Amino acid sequence: xxxxxxxxxxxxxxxxxxxxxxxxxxxxxxxxxxxxxxxxxxxxxxxxxxxxxxxxxxxxxxxxxxxxxxxxxxxxxxxxxxxxxxxxxxxxxxxxxxxxxxxxxxxxxxxxxxxxxxxxxxxxxxxxxxxxxxxxxxxxxxxxxxxxxx
Length: 150
Ligand SMILES: CC(C)(COP(=O)(O)OP(=O)(O)OC[C@H]1O[C@@H](n2cnc3c(N)ncnc32)[C@H](O)[C@@H]1OP(=O)(O)O)[C@@H](O)C(=O)NCCC(=O)NCCS
Description:
Elements: H1 7-14, E1 15-18, H2 23-32, H3 40-48, E2 52-58, E3 61-70, E4 75-83, H4 92-107, E5 115-117, H5 125-129
Parallel strand pairs: 4-5
Antiparallel strand pairs: 1-2, 2-3, 3-4
Helix pairs in contact: 2-3
Bound molecules: coenzyme A.
Coenzyme A (COA) binds near residues 91 and 120.
């Protein structure tokens, strides 16, 4: 049998997950997927006030991130799920999303109900549906909505 590992298999073995990311690393990941930029100070505030940060790293380099926001009550928000394009399609996005879901399940108290919300990027709905998220609007619920302040 051929013992050679593909680059995807090699990467899978090397990926580590840490609970920290710098604002510079976070903004670089946003740039990698062509998302809007904002000041480092604002990025740092978002990082500092997240309930959970998970950063995927390849030999120390940040190649994926997820931020979970949670008020401790019934509303949680999954934000900034990003995998560097060079590393997509290797299960890293799955690990990021499933880790957020598991953290809520671990931390919610008996009897609690928690709604985990997100705003899907265009075309990424099928990715999130894999983890049980339901697309809106539907027969029962209106669309998600948002507004930017600049
Ligand atoms: C969306 C994103 C996070 C997925 O990360 P990834 O590491 O490539 O995803 P994974 O390899 O873990 O894929 C997990 C599963 O989702 C599927 N999947 C991944 N991207 C998908 C897509 N765009 N549409 C449908 N399914 C998708 C995979 O086929 C895989 O399915 P399987 O487990 O049944 O084989 C990544 O493409 C990304 O960072 N995109 C740019 C930023 C972005 O749009 N993020 C979402 C913000 S709301």
